[in-house]
Structure formats: structure tokens, C-alpha cells
Amino acid sequence: MTKIKICGMRRVNDILYVNTYHPDYAGFILSEGFKRTVDIDTFYDLELLLNKEIKRVGVFVNEPIENILKSFAHKLDVIQLHGEENAEYIDKLRKNCDCEIWKAVRVKYADDIAKADALPVHKLLIDSFSAGSYGGTGKRVDLDIFSQVNISKPFFLAGGLNEENICYAMEKVQPYGVDFSSSVETNGFKDENKIKRIVETIRNNTERRI
Length: 210
Ligand SMILES: O=C(O)c1ccccc1NCC(=O)[C@H](O)[C@H](O)COP(=O)(O)O
Prior knowledge:
Bound molecules: the ligand O=C(O)c1ccccc1NCC(=O)[C@H](O)[C@H](O)COP(=O)(O)O
Strand content: 15-25%
Helix content: 25-40%
Distance between the termini: 9 Å
CATH superfamily: Aldolase class I
Number of strands: 10
CATH class: Alpha Beta
Structural class: alpha/beta
Mean pLDDT: 96
Low-confidence stretches: none
CATH topology: TIM Barrel
């Protein structure tokens, strides 16, 4: 069954929506300065309300490791590194916490994926490249790039996925999981109906193929 991650939890309502439709993972933007960033107290409050079976993903962009370890790691299942974190950074993080580590690749060329695949992480999240933005842009990845590279690690496909393109993308790329943010929002906030529809679309599509 293809795993589903809904990213950018910000409000109590967002948590109620994911508790109802039950994706496998819920993401929180925990580095400062992004439009979906939640502060530490909000994160603690929201995390308490989140169904225990939904895995907690903290998204960080070039965050000092000490901050992750001191304030967040004990509440997270997964640490998603969405900046320019290198092998040395990842090794240090892995030695000091038990979370799964995912590296996001903001892909321009196939070689970007090959380089990330060599990093000491558990999974990759393959996202689109946008100059000046780290993520959550709604911009799509060129799926043809996947035929140019062998990926050894399980990976999430992200970047501009929506109800219209998700079945084609899953068929073409066969990801371990799929990740959504912009397309399940209306006016910048998570939309219950859009979350419901995307989760149902994926689960129905996966069932048809079994
Ligand atoms: O979502 C953000 O605002 C964000 C900011 C900084 C770094 C990463 C961010 N999002 C990471 C994600 O995992 C998003 O879900 C991913 O980029 C896909 O977003 P979208 O294209 O909007 O579906």
C-alpha cells in the first residue's frame, strides 16, 4: 500500500482532518521563517492531539542539530531534512537520536537524486526545485527524470501532486509514498474535503492494483 504524507499541519482543525482520514504520516514545518512554520508550543499542542498511529514528521531546513535534539526529536518519528544537510550532519544526527531520517532532494537533474541516494539516510523525499523556495510550492517534478537514475532507497514523491495527477505519477514512478501540501489547501489552509478526496483516491487506486 503506497504510504501517504500530508505536510504542513498548523491548526487544530488540520489535526482533526488527518485523524479522520488517516494518512500514514503528518508533517510539521519546524524551522523558523516559512509560511507553514509552527512554533514549538503549537507543535507540542498539535502533536498531543494527533492520533498515535499517524507518524510525526518534523521538517527542518539547515537547522542546528542541537535544536532538533533538544526540542523536537523526542516527539518525532521522522526527521525530514529539507535543506543542504550533508553526510557529516546526518551522521551526527543519527548517532544522537532514534528517529528515521529522510533527505529531501529538490531535484533539477537526475544526478541530484543519485547523490542524495548515497547519503546515510533511511528514505528520500523527491521534491521539485524552485529558486528561492525550499518546499511546499505546488511545483511538479519532471517524472521523466526517474528513468535516468536507479534509486536504492525507498522514496516519497512530492511536489505539486494532486487529485488529477497522482494516479499517473504513482503508476509511472512507483514510489514508496506520496506527499501533499499545497493541493490539499484552500486559501492557504488545509481543506478537509481535499484531504478526504486525495486519501480516498490513493487508497482506491492501490486496492485496484492488488
Ligand atoms: O511546506 C512548506 O512550507 C515547506 C517549507 C520549507 C521546507 C519544506 C516545506 N515543505 C516540505 C514538504 O514536505 C512539502 O509537502 C513538499 O514540498 C510538497 O509540497 P507541495 O508541492 O505544496 O505539495
